[in-house]
Amino acid sequence: MPHRTRVTSGRRRIGLMAAAVALASAVSTPAAVAGTGSREDAAGRYVALGDSYVAGPFVGTLTSHTPGCLQTDGNYPHRVAAALSITLKDVGCSSAATDHVFAPQVTDGVVLGTAPPQLAAVTADATMVSIGFGANDIKTSELMGACVSLFPIGSPCQDHYVKDGVDQIALRIDATAPKFDRVISAVRTKAPHARIFVVGYPAIFPAAGGGCWPLVPVTPSDTQYLRNSFKRLNGVLAARAAAHHVTYVDTYTPSIGHDPCQAPAQRWIEPLIPAAPASVLHPNARGEQGLADALLAAVRTR
To answer: Which CATH number fits the domain that encloses residue 251?
Structure first.
């Protein structure tokens, strides 16, 4: 079964690489869980909710948030809070899904722990809330494991997820709509005077072309499939934001040309073997700054 071998080997390769990067970061910052990055004397209060794209694993010093969340002070919420001189309550956590807005999250990072429901951080005095979820609701880690190929041929990913003309990933993406309705409504109820921002995902795959196997070990055909899938997810996030009259933050457009296939000095997202501190297929420091700039532009637009 060659396809099974490719998938199993690919999953093992990505898992080992992610573990190695995580271990290297933990060793290099053993006492890094001291700072929170909050500015308690600032005007206004910003609450950041979300997953690993919010938490920013390995792009700075670990904060005192639940260690397994791998949240760092180099992530975009900390950069935005510093630029606005606003108090920050950052509860972004790696592996978080929309369910973890309402329920505790048992984390599975370098150090295990339990993060409280993210909604608990949202209070009536919040003046700004950003929401960054979706990837874990569609089980991206499983998706990427199934899409790894040891050879740049065929479409094993699409073949796995599209059966009898039904795209299972598209169904998962469309199913996030009511989840986001619930999250946005809950945030608005708890913080009725806050400006709410739904932050989309940057270009995890090139905006055109067939990718860059083996730097990102996905076949050209599956690169197109995954690119369209993540664009569909962003479309759902934008639509739900519009339906609730809150602001959608487009991070995809400014990230074009900064995907993992670009040269190290140009990319915002790191490939299978990162050249800069970041989790695999996650933003590096340039990427977190790019996300921060996109959110700041939205904040400053009235």
So the answer is: 3.40.50.1110
